[in-house]
Design brief:
Length: 649
């Protein structure tokens, strides 16, 4: 072993000595070559001469700085065109008349360092290079471009707007604002409203997203936050806007990552350092305030918290008018029909609907070569398609499909009108109901009522049972309930129908594992009360087994009991189910008298059994189809509760 070790050391020393001698020899040869060229007056050799990108590498690494543009010439190779003037526009382009265009925010260019782009962004942490684009006020929208939000506009004008219009007077009264936090569901227009504030008060606008701040280098995110405030200081007056603020200012007690803690600490330091600075307004937007660090959003740092919620009817009307402006729209668009149909939709969803309808008209115009206009039918078609495959709907269900007492059907129709137009209840000074409990024996039509309501109110329909959400894994049931309501909110207006709700929200006090599921369901229904467009319907045969908290006001506050039909009701149901049957001499009134105690589902089964008995009696598929009184009597005999199973054999 010792001999091998000595041989290895000797070999390494020999190789190192040979490498030093070879390097010294190459250095002497290079010095001699340089001395010979200097005596002959030649230029030193170009290290990049053998590369087709020699000029590019020379400018990049030669210390001249700046950026250069190159074009490839087949005769001379790569040539520098940085100093060439851009080509003058053609004569027809100069004489082309300017066309009116819709005012849209200018897309933000992705700022990235040269080395970051050279190495694919990995070296410099992606876009987090600390370079922020500054948008001047003349490129931004203002309050005139914002549809609705009149209350928010008035609140901004009466608070921060006064300070921006009269800074000297505000300083004399000792008033200063350090920040405004906008929060609300996704798509309600938080970023658009922040840009409108900057445009309204002629402020430069700096949009800071997560990709602009997050860096792959330790401490790079904190330096980027400091750089954002420095950029805002250099461009006063300025509005510095942090989008998706919860990804930057997340709670430190739930974050073990030291880099995230450093980022939050630097944000606190920068907010304190620029507190009360004239001409600088700091704003942020988030979907969830509870995920923010309390030290960041306390008074003195973000003095004002403004919630931007779903638009009401008047705001939706203004949004539709703003989106239809400068488009080839028909003059007779029926806003009275469109506004209720967009209940529960965000401004982003309404914009998507108008864009979809405009694209459809544009496609038709290009195919036909005609000048077409956007009308009500195109917008209604876009509303129907909104949500795609994740918006389950029910069709071909009408109130004629239900045979109910007149007073119950009147209540359900009134409920349909409230679901379609929640503003109708607010005109009476009350909030619209958020839930309904359907109780009654099995087969009385509770599921059919829910389907008819969803079809007639044009709502997404989410039917579930307890088995669809319950799981043996801890926390899985709560997650399933939360995801169900999230889907319903994304595809508003929608109806969540929970069949056999007593299996999911039974009276608490028994199994501890069921408590968390009931708590999650109650929390989601309470969340629905604050976000319009989602209606909850529960169905049960045993309302006494439900948790009392589910039936209080603000949740499933209304209960409708569907009982067994009387003789007149049974006759109407039989007439409904036999309307297309080839009946011959059938006394439906007698059948209705003999079927006392039957539910609507039993009467439907009776019609099916009678048809099966007729098919069995005919014996041949080619025989004329006919259903007689005897077939109905045979169906009654089969469905009797007191008939033993052996008699069917």
């Amino acid at each position: 072993m010792l001999i091998l070790l000595l041989l290895s050391v000797g070999f390494i020393l020999l190789m190192a000595s040979m490498a030093r001698r070879a390097a010294a020899q190459r250095r002497r040869q290079l010095e001699e070559e340089l001395e010979r060229q200097s005596r002959a007056g030649d230029e030193p050799p170009d290290p990049f001469g053998g590369s087709p990108f020699d000029a590019l590498f020379e400018h990049m690494l030669g210390g001249s700085g700046g950026w250069h543009s190159y074009e490839y010439d087949p005769e001379s190779g790569w040539t520098d065109v940085s100093e060439q003037e851009p080509a003058a526009p053609r004569e027809e382009e100069r004489n082309r008349p300017a066309t009116a265009q819709r005012r849209r925010p200018r897309p933000r260019a992705a700022s990235q360092s040269p080395l970051g782009s050279l190495f694919g962004g990995g070296l410099m942490g992606g876009d987090g290079s600390g370079n922020f684009e500054v948008q001047p006020p003349d490129e931004l929208t203002n309050f005139d471009d914002v549809g609705g939000m009149e209350t928010l506009k008035r609140e901004v004008r009466d608070t921060v707007g006064l300070m921006l219009r009269h800074p000297e007077e505000a300083e004399r009264y000792g008033i200063d604002w350090n920040g405004i936090l906008l929060y609300g569901p996704p798509g309600v227009g938080k970023t658009f409203f922040a840009e409108a504030i900057a445009g309204e008060y002629e402020l430069n606008f700096i949009h800071v997203s997560t990709g602009d701040l997050v860096s792959g280098i330790v401490g790079g995110s904190a330096r980027n936050i400091d750089k954002a405030f420095e950029t805002a200081e250099e461009n006063l007056p300025c509005l510095l806007f942090f989008d998706e603020f919860d990804s930057v200012a997340q709670r430190r007690d739930n974050t073990p990552d030291q880099e995230s803690r450093r980022t939050v600490n630097q944000l606190l330091t920068s907010l304190e350092a620029h507190h009360g600075e004239q001409g600088l307004l700091v704003m942020a937007a988030t979907n969830s305030v509870e995920h923010l660090d309390p030290a960041v959003i306390r008074p003195g740092r973000f003095d004002r918290h403004i919630r931007i919620d779903l638009p009401d009817a008047e705001a939706r009307r203004e949004i539709l008018l703003a989106e239809l402006e400068d488009r080839p729209a028909a003059s007779g668009i029926d806003l009275e029909t469109l506004v209720p149909r967009t209940e529960g939709m965000t401004p982003a969803a309404i914009e998507k609907i108008v864009d979809t309808a405009a694209l459809e008209v544009f496609r038709e115009a290009t195919q036909t070569g005609e000048q077409l206009e956007l009308d009500t039918s195109h917008l209604l078609s876009a509303i129907e398609r909104y949500g795609g495959q994740d918006r389950p709907t029910v069709e071909h269900w009408t109130w004629d499909s239900l045979v109910l007492p007149a007073n119950i059907k009147a209540q359900l129709r009134q409920l349909q009108s409230v679901i379609e137009d929640p503003e109708s209840s607010r005109r009476y000074g009350v909030e619209p109901p958020t839930g309904l409990l359907l109780a009654g024996p099995p087969g009385t039509g509770k599921t059919t009522v829910a389907k008819v309501l969803a079809a007639q109110a044009r709502c997404s329909f989410y039917p579930i049972a307890g088995a669809d959400v319950m799981s043996k894994w801890v926390g899985e049931s709560e997650r399933n309930i939360r995801q169900l309501f999230e889907r319903a909110r994304e595809n508003r207006p929608s109806i969540v129908f929970i069949d056999e709700i007593d299996a999911l929200a039974g009276r608490r006090g028994g199994l501890e594992t069921q408590h968390s599921s009931v708590n999650q369901l109650l929390a989601e229904i309470d969340g629905v009360a604050g976000q319009r467009g989602v209606f909850v319907i529960g169905a049960t045969n045993r309302p006494d087994q439900l948790d009392p908290a589910l039936l209080r006001g603000g949740r499933l506050s209304r209960t409708i009991v569907l009982g067994l039909p009387d003789e007149a009701g049974r006759l109407a149901i039989l007439q409904l189910h036999t309307a297309r049957m080839p009946t011959v001499a059938v006394d439906l009134a007698a059948v209705a008298r003999e079927s006392e105690g039957f539910s609507p589902a039993d009467l439907r089964s009776l019609a099916q059994e009678a048809a099966l008995a007729a098919m069995t009696r005919s014996g041949s598929p080619k025989a004329p189809a006919s259903v007689t009184q005897e077939d109905f009597e045979e169906g009654l005999r089969r469905l009797r509760r007191d008939v033993p199973v052996e008699s069917f054999v």
